[in-house]
Specification:
heterodimer; A: 334 residues; alpha/beta; 7-stranded mixed sheet; 5-stranded mixed sheet; 12 helices; 38% helix; B: 325 residues; 6-stranded parallel sheet; two-stranded antiparallel ribbon; 11 helices
Chain lengths: 334, 325
């Protein structure tokens, strides 16, 4: 999807790009460890943890019992005393058990201790949905975490960003929520061999355009690119921003783009209301109202629990068509 | 059991420091000069003092809402504590935390938080870090009987036992969880037994006898260092003040429902008075030495207040500092 300038870049799957980030960081820094349910099992974490246990052993690759609250707290506690844990929740839905250590403890820790405690933890959640799994195997709750001061939230859409943001998340001295998506795991892209960081809080412009800006995140960036290609055949020139970071998000690039195009679609993998899409819309309305030629439109999940039956899933998950329709809507209103 | 004079003086001084510090807050809380909610540990000092006396600075402790004593016993500065309670910029948390968030990482007090049982898993993580790094140290989690209602305690015991982590669970059972008597919170089974199904070395002791506490904590530390952890210690004790503030009958909207006769019984078992009597009766420490220590501590506490009350509050313009590192 995007190319990199590194001469050592080659094609790699998204899941293996994450895997490479983990290998390289665990090699470089003995304080990095990975802990969570299913780190030994591709059924849980796909190929993201391949080879880690064999290489780093059971003290640094820790597969855990089903105790999301305590395991997340343990990662937070280990971070407080100087480790750099990567705590994985193979399905984001199960993070609900871990809200206290994430929100009450990790997010607040540095502030409420007057800067005298730090929590360099990565809390990694996989969005794992579809296949008639139903409501509790499908949620993307980045909006909830982004609401909380003291957390950073990143959601890479491409293999190269998946690696670079994992590296950045591990090296950040603050709690970072790293959220990927099973639907992205087999996507291939160009990934540099060497370790590198993608800065947290910086979006990337995937496509230059002048008619409308689409600001998208995670899987929706894939769909948005397809929508952009389709729309260009119809004479509509889309500027596509893959936001990459939910919080902090790239206000400068977003504003620059909206000031240019005057129209904004936000494409989010979460629910429509009270989330990331709502936040970008509110921000742009406050900061760039005079530039808008039409209201900001959100393309996201409807405010409904996720159904199981494939016919309902079909109606539920946004498709390229939904994005195309949204673009027509904002174009029509100018 | 033989104890050095140094140790006896240390235990006495620590308990007294905690008591005088806690009691010095009472009037200021009642007159409103101190607003942050203070969960005073008067009456429970022997546990903090006895446990921390066996720990080294590199051992990790995590506390809860009632952690002034843990902080002081581990070696935290009186000034920094009192400043934090006054919410001044010079406090241990720069006035951002208040009474319920005290820490001093330099002496191994790594944090406290009032979400009941919220720091148990943090201590678990510290123990995990110790094991990963192969260090000869222990982690200690202080919590109360109320925390035995929280699931994360059982998750933590399970994982600690599974991996034989160097973690000491210290349960200060003062028989009340805010206003709820323990018999309304859990069946009539001693708390220490909750660790037994996990195969954890677990026992119950008199938490108002500082030498017993010291002995149990020392044994627990030894076991952990040998790789035979975790250990669960239940200490029976009683708080002489309110759940929060000096007197639940004066403040808040719940009255102290503890029977007067019960409070009186426990006042007789005051850990500091008991220790004083023991030291004098056994001719271990001279009365004059005890008096000297008392005067020194009084002076330190007084100085702490003079200092803290003269320091400035954090500036409103500094509101957004310390969100991120």
């Amino acid at each position: 999807m995007n190319s990199t300038n590194s001469k050592n870049a080659r094609t790699l799957q998204y899941c293996l790009a994450i895997n490479e980030a983990l290998h390289q960081e665990m090699d470089r820094d003995p304080s990095v460890l990975i802990i969570g349910q299913g780190v030994k099992s591709p059924w849980y974490v796909g190929n993201t943890a391949l080879g880690l246990l064999e290489k780093f052993g059971t003290r640094r690759v820790i597969d855990t019992p089903v105790s999301e609250n305590a395991m997340t707290g343990a990662a937070v506690g280990a971070a407080i005393v100087g480790m750099r844990p990567v705590l994985i929740h193979p399905r984001m839905d199960f993070m609900m058990y871990a809200m206290d250590p994430i929100i009450n403890q990790a997010a607040n820790w540095h502030y409420m201790n007057g800067g005298r405690g730090k929590v360099p933890v990565v809390i990694w959640g996989i969005v794992n949905r579809g296949g008639e799994q139903g409501a509790q195997h499908s949620q993307a709750i980045h909006g909830i975490f982004a609401h909380v001061p003291g957390l950073k939230v990143v959601m890479p859409a491409t293999p190269s960003d998946a690696k670079g943001l994992m590296v950045s998340a591990i090296r950040d001295d603050n709690p970072v929520m790293y959220i990927d998506d099973r639907w992205l795991h087999n996507v291939k892209g160009s990934v540099p061999e060497e370790p590198y960081e993608i800065p947290i809080g910086k979006a990337t412009r995937i496509r230059d355009g002048k008619d409308v800006t689409i600001a998208s995140i995670s899987y929706m960036s894939l769909l948005s690119l397809k929508a952009a290609e389709e729309l260009s055949c119809r004479g509509i020139d889309v500027e596509l921003l893959d936001m990459r970071s939910v919080k902090p998000f790239d206000k400068d690039l977003l504003l620059e783009s909206v000031e240019k195009t005057g129209r904004l679609i936000v494409a989010d993998v979460g629910w429509q209301s009270f989330g990331f899409a709502a936040e970008l819309s509110a921000f742009v309305s406050e900061a760039a109202f005079g530039f808008l030629k039409s209201p900001v439109v959100r393309v996201a999940l409807p405010d409904l629990p996720t159904p199981a039956a494939r016919t309902l899933e079909e109606a539920y998950f946004p498709k390229v068509d939904n994005i195309v329709t949204a673009v027509h809507k904002v174009m029509g209103k100018s | 059991m033989e104890h050095t004079v140094t140790l006896l003086e240390r235990l006495y001084r620590t308990m007294l420091t905690i008591r005088l510090c806690e009691e010095s807050l009472v009037d200021l809380i009642l007159n409103g000069e101190i607003r942050t909610p203070c969960h005073l540990c008067s009456g429970q000092e022997a546990i903090a003092a006895g446990v921390c006396a066996t720990l080294k600075p590199e051992d990790y402790i995590f506390g809860n809402h009632r952690s002034h004593g843990h902080y002081l016993a581990k070696g935290g500065s009186i000034r920094d504590l009192i400043s934090e309670i006054y919410c001044r910029d010079t406090g241990c948390c720069r006035g951002r935390g208040g009474s319920m968030h005290v820490l001093s990482p330099d002496v191994g007090m790594w944090g406290a938080a009032p979400i009941v049982a919220g720091t148990i898993s943090l201590a678990l993580g510290a123990a995990l870090a110790i094991q990963t790094r192969n260090q000869g140290r222990v982690a200690v989690s202080f919590f109360g009987d109320g925390a035995t209602g929280e699931g994360v305690l059982y998750e933590s015991m399970n994982f600690a036992a599974l991996r034989k982590l160097p973690l000491i669970f210290v349960c200060e059972n003062n028989f009340y969880s805010t206003h709820m008597p323990i018999r309304e919170c859990r069946p009539d089974v001693p708390i220490f037994k909750i660790a037994e199904p996990f195969g954890i070395d677990s026992r119950q002791s008199d938490g108002n006898d500082v030498l017993i506490v010291y002995k149990e904590a020392s044994r627990a530390r030894e076991l952990c260092l040998k790789g035979e952890g975790p250990v669960f210690l239940e200490f029976l004790t009683y708080r002489l003040r309110g759940h929060v503030g000096p007197d639940d009958n004066i403040q808040g909207c719940h009255t102290d429902i503890r029977p007067d006769c019960e409070v009186l019984e426990w006042q007789k078992k005051d850990p500091i008075l008991r220790f004083e009597r023991y030291l004098i009766e056994e001719s271990l420490l001279d009365e004059r030495v005890l008096q000297q220590i008392k005067e020194q501590v009084e002076e330190e506490v007084k100085e702490g207040h003079l200092y803290a009350s003269s320091c400035s509050f954090p500036r409103g313009s500094d509101l957004d500092r310390y969100v991120f590192r």
